[in-house]
Each structure stands twice: as C-alpha cells, then as structure tokens.
Amino acid sequence: MPNTPEVSSLTLNRLSIYLRSLRQLEEERVATISSQELAHRFHLSATQIRKDLAQFGEFGIRGVGYDVAQLALRLSRLLGLERRHAIVICGIGNLGRALAEYWGFNHGPFAVVAGVDQDPRKIGKRVGTFVIAAPDEIERLVRETGAEIGVLTVPPSAARESYLALVDAGIRAVLNFTLQRLEPRPGVRVKNVDLRINLEELAFHLGG
Amino acid sequence: MPNTPEVSSLTLNRLSIYLRSLRQLEEERVATISSQELAHRFHLSATQIRKDLAQFGEFGIRGVGYDVAQLALRLSRLLGLERRHAIVICGIGNLGRALAEYWGFNHGPFAVVAGVDQDPRKIGKRVGTFVIAAPDEIERLVRETGAEIGVLTVPPSAARESYLALVDAGIRAVLNFTLQRLEPRPGVRVKNVDLRINLEELAFHLGG
DNA sequence: AGATGTGAATGAGTTCACAGCT
DNA sequence: AGCTGTGAACTCATTCACATCT
Predict the structure, then answer these.
(1) Which residues in chain A have Cβ-Cβ distances shorter than 8 Å to B10?
(2) CA nearest A76 in B: which residue?
(3) Which CATH architecture has domain A85-197?
(4) Given an 8 Å threshold on Cβ–Cβ distance, is B102 in contact with A79?
(5) Pick the CATH number of B9-78 from 3.30.2320.80, 3.40.190.10, 3.40.640.10, 1.10.10.10
(6) What is the b/e burial string over B157-195, where b = at least 16 CB atoms within 10 angstroms of the residue's CB?
(7) Which terminus of chain A is less hemmed in, N or C, by CB atoms within 10 Å?
(8) Confidence at residue B4, expressed as pLDDT on a 0 to 100 scale
(9) For an interface test with A, which of B78, B199, B205, B206 has the most A Cβ atoms less than 10 Å from its Cβ?
(10) What pLDDT digit, counting tens, does each position of B125-144 carry?
C-alpha cells in the first residue's frame, strides 16, 4: 500500500471552494478556464490552485487550462461528493433543529435522515424530513438508513455518551459542536466546530 | 505607535482555550499551575502555551508556574472579554434563531440584543431575549443597544445588502455564516464561518 | 531545583520562477 | 505563445533545548 501522506484541512477546504467556483462557471456555460482566471474571478491564488491539485494528479492541459466540467467532476469524486452521505443528528435543541433543516446539510450528497433526543416530549415530533427518535434507537437508525456521519449538538455533559453510541452504531465520521473533547476511536474521524471561539476572536480585535 | 504585528487566528483561538482551561482550574480551587501540567491536563503543548503568552508579555513566575486566577484575568482582558459585547443577528431563519438562543452567544461578555428579518410575518415575534425588527431598524438598534458585533444568517442573495447595512449602522465586527464573500471595509472585521465545508471535509475521508 | 521565557532548529504552508508540454 | 506542473525560496508556525530567573 502506498504511504498516503495525510492531506491537510487547508488543502481540502480549498478544494471545496474550487469545486463551488467551478459549479458556478458551469452554470455560466464556461467550458475552459486557466488557474490564472479562476483565481482572479474568485479571489484565489493561481499557484495555490495548481499546487493543491498537484497533490492528486494532473488535471489541466498545458497552454490551455482546465476543462471546467471535467475538473468539477474529478474534484467532486475526490472529495467523495459523488455518492450519498446520510447524516444523523444527536440532540435536537435549537442548533440541532437548525442544522437538520439547514440547506448545506440537505443538498447534493448530504441528507439529514434521522435525529435523536433524550427529551421524551420531543420524541415523535417531526423535524425537517424525519421524526425525532429516542437515543437507544441510534443503532437501528444507522443500520436502516446507512448513515455515515453523526452530528453532535447535545449538551456537553451528554457528549461523550452520545459519541460512543454513534461509534458503536457504526458511524464513521462525527461533526462535534459541543466543547467536549472526544477521545479518538479507530476508523472514526472527528471534526470539532467551536462557534463560540469565533466571537472571542472578534472580541480580541474589538479591544478591551 | 509601535508596529503591531497582527496576531494569528491560531494563537488567538488557543488563548481562548487556555482561558477556558484556567476557568475550570479556578472552579477546582487550583491556585497555581505550570505550563507543563496545564498542557498535560488539557491536552495542550507546554512550549506552545509559553510561546503564545510570550507574544503579550510575561505572565509566570520562574520556578513556580502561573497564578491561575491572575493569568485567567489577564487573558480575559487581552481577549476583550472583560467588557460586554452586544450582538445583532441579521436573518432569523433556523440558524439565526438557534444562534440567538445559543448558550455560547449569550454568556459572559456576549449577549444577543437584537435581530432583524425581511419577512413581515416574523417582525414583532419574540426570539430569545428580543423582538424581531425590520431591517431598516438596524441603525437605530445598533445605536440604542451599543451593539458591536453583527451575525449574518441571511440567504446569500441578501448577504451583501445586510452587511452594508450593518457597516453603515456602525457595527465593528461581523460573523458571516453565508457563503457570500464580503468586501472588506476599513474598521470592520469579518470572520467567515462555513458550516457546510466541514461536512465536505469529512466526506473526503469517507472516500468515494 | 524547577519552571519560565526565548533563540535556534525544524516543519508546514505558500509563493516564486521557470522548465516543459500543447 | 501560453499555461500547467514543480523544484527552490521564502514565510509562517511549532518544537527543541537551554540560559535565566525565583
């Protein structure tokens, strides 16, 4: 097996941006584009586009540029966006509910297919495209829906427990909105999102 | 004026983490801690703690460590968290409503004090601690509440307009949840948050 | 003795500049 | 001629290792 040198988040996130830019160009019926012009149109760096792509092969035609549709397709495949990824949300509070109905989580390959909550009063209520279930249903839901991604929007005290339930159910990736640190588990990728920290960063610049 | 070499987001975000860790130690009545032990207890790097702090002065006592309460206070001041920062939310859809009631946005120095939405049916409705107002009220709301931070949770097509309204109203920092790029304005700091991109990053690791 | 604060070394990420292909 | 792909240079960030202070 070739020694896969882990791709950085920075690169991956830029690839997402490139793909979105290409999608827009497709809508404008642009057939071909140079890194130069792509960079100019979307405020990116031409060299960086080429370097980022270089990590995964050769995508362009020298002297010409990139075939928009073809590059979009290849990036989409590369990012794993050519097949469906079902999502389960743990904790249907304000944030969980918002994400359940969030466009970005229910578009293209992504779909929120289930959600669980501790609160018996919430169980059975419809949110977005699913009905809230009890936490002990996670395993069944994951099995039946083939969900791969879990979203954690529970209170911090319930984070560890919910995380382990997701892992046991066979979830392969977790988006963690709680401030609780989660212990790494083999085969499960965790991405932490800290909404509060963004405010604190802004506050710094506002000064004391 | 001394040439202020812009502090990186990475450093600032770590300072937030250090502060939270110290707060927890305060609750546990720990009076003093070394970078070594702080790192060990919260999965951080001791050298990095010292380097990060070094950018802002000397905080410790050699041979002893750091006074927990004192360092917490100094970090809190440094991050601008010792005074109140009022927040206005533009766009009270699912995400806007969730953030309006989100603990992290209504705790310590932060408070969501106002929200506006285009939709006439929403105007007048109570959300969290405020009543939804019309977009043309932004200027008055910012003036009356002294809000400094604006949160953008509008549809992408309304992003630019809402942003400019916030800027005109005198907002000094913007947390942008839309995918729309915002043109920089002098004196206004923008922090973009892309929730969708996190899913795409996870999808990459799940493979095609 | 024991921990901080910091120059020096290393590593990660970006930009430059150009060889090589179309 | 023009643009990609890429080694080399550079900048930013982290880690090492130790002089310095209590």
Answers:
(1) none
(2) B208
(3) 3-Layer(aba) Sandwich (3.40)
(4) no
(5) 1.10.10.10
(6) ebbbebbebbbebbbbbbbbbbbbebeeeeebbbbbbbb
(7) N
(8) 67
(9) B199
(10) 999 999 999 999 999 999 99
